[in-house]
Amino acid sequence: MSPEDRRAAEHDCARLVALYANLNDEARWEEVAALYTEDGVMYRPTAPDQGVVGREAILAAFKARPPRTTRHVCSNVVIDVEGPATARGTSAMLLFTGDGAPLVGSFHDRFALTADGWRFAERRGSLTFK
């Protein structure tokens, strides 16, 4: 893998992290779910031991949420490209909601390159402060 290809993969995966936060805040659930591979797994920061498996189940989990106003702020994004079609990443997350104290946590991600571009193969959230 050339340095240019590695940087492109890092950029695309970091963009995916930011896009996920923006789409989540806009309640665009179909588009959020589409950021996962078909067999992707999501672990919410508030339920880090309960994986939601598969794009359809992830979409259903988001649609089942009660409506709320949120703002996710992601930072300290570091992507490690493992090969031409796989990467790992970490990021810090700050979640503001309209009805509670901010939550501080992190995401540990696994990415896979698909025919549609880079997608989350696994997104594992956890909380540091509640």
UniProtKB/TrEMBL annotation:
Keywords: Dioxygenase, Oxidoreductase. CDD domains: NTF2_like (cd00531). InterPro entries: NTF2-like_dom_sf, SnoaL-like. Residues 8-124 form the SnoaL-like domain. The keyword Oxidoreductase applies. One of its GO terms (molecular function) is dioxygenase activity. It holds the Pfam family SnoaL_4. It comes from the Bacteria. This is Putative aromatic ring hydroxylating dioxygenase subunit beta. It comes from Novosphingobium subterraneum. The lineage of its organism: Bacteria, Pseudomonadati, Pseudomonadota, Alphaproteobacteria, Sphingomonadales.
